[in-house]
Fold:
Amino acid sequence: MDKPSSAWRWIRILAPWFLGIAIVAALIRFVSPDAFLEALRQADAARVMAVLMGYFIAALPLDALGYWSLLRDLRSPVRYRDVLLARGASLAFGVLNYTVGQGGLAWILHKSAGVDLARCGLLVLFISAADLFLIALAAALTTGSTQSPALGIIQTAAWVILAATAAYAALKLFWRSGGGMRETPPTRRGRILAVLRLGMELSFAAHIRLALLRAPRIAVIFTGFYLLLPGFQLQAGLAELVAAISATTLAGAIPLTPFGLGTTHALGLELMKTWGPQARILAYGLVPPVVFFVLDLAAGLGCLAAVRARGWIGPGAAPREES
Structure:
């Protein structure tokens, strides 16, 4: 029974990769393989690598800052440098897909700092929700900067996300005013409700602080893609770029392929068609994830080795008390 179960897990992980690669191959054929290779040859490799390396170096500390702050608000404080190392190590897991990466981070924090799994789950949930809210806000605010039916659909989804955020805030107000459950039975359902209660009891100030801390990381994403345009001889206004990158990022949140591989690039060809030749647009979309895959794997394995050397994980890991 174990082997089929293990095989099925690998199929679930790898099948989306095969789908994404198939879509990318179809897109390369669509724009012409020769034109795509020519676009890669004409790219300013020095500028492209400088921008991507700068983005990678800036994004990771900013990313860890949000996790560090939220852990404090969830009453499970962990030193920032430990959160940074754990987040770096999780990059090695994240090359498979986002869910595995976040699961790896939760596992490391649980093993190294004794953060209970309920708080780890809320940590991942609220970080993802804050990022989704900020991207949706950016998409909504840039409405009209790009004329495309596809963008209109995505921006409608962005407004739905913002409405859901307002509904969550209303529910939290109701809960904090005394309408929520205060005692939970010692059952599985009770444990789930206890996690829900922990999330509802998180203050509005904590959510606002998290959004403010995540905003610079989102800004780094937009800035990086904007600075990357000349490297592929493309031209776009800042508002137009924010609209397109927000839309493709929201589309990438749909878990059809890892990190939206293929699906976001197909959407990008439609939203960015006025920026330049399609082959260059496709190269502009595909080069960053390939570079980041290599950087994430290298940095992740290095941080993972450091985590093991500290005895946080592995055979010699000392048990930690849950916080």
Notes: Residues 278-309 form the longest helix (32 residues).
